[in-house]
Fold:
Amino acid sequence: MKTSNTKTLAPAAVNPLIAAGTHKLLDVRTNVEFAEHHVPGSQHIPLDQLDLECARLDPSSPLALLCLGGKRAAQAAEILSEKGFQDLTVIEGGLTAWQAAGLPVQKSDRKILPLMRQVQLTVGVLALTGSLLAIFVNPLFAILPAILGAGLTLAGSTGWCGLAIFLSKMPWNRCPKAQTSCCAAQS
Structure:
């Protein structure tokens, strides 16, 4: 849902605003997503921490909001708008569109399976296991794939995925120890 002080712009239209210093870029993806690749100079506050961490931001300063595809950035715009932020821009298509436009992205040498692929693998293995157990052991094991289906339905309809949040907190998805915080501003 768009708020009256939120606009959506293509990456090519936002990049000059960021380069000129008129807008600050706020990346609201997870820590591991940000550590893997991000726009140089972007500030990072994961969406699930935005309520608590938005005090680090200036409500009167124009912000360009970025996530992977645009949905979490729009959710961040709603949160920030409710907290009195005046000039918010959601980057249309997110980091995916940013990269497709040939705009700069800083990539890490660290190779981690992307979080959504981790979710897909976990759900796939559990659904297959539950189905096979239901066929060969006990029909009550069919509850497992049903629960997974309900979870996917919830994630698809709301944009909130509990499994993705859980997996993002696993040790292999933590930021490198060399950084004091994945949430610190990056230059």
Observations:
- The longest helix spans residues 115-136.
- Residues 115-173 form one domain.
- The helical segments are 11-19, 31-36, 50-53, 71-82, 94-100, 115-136, 143-158, 162-168.
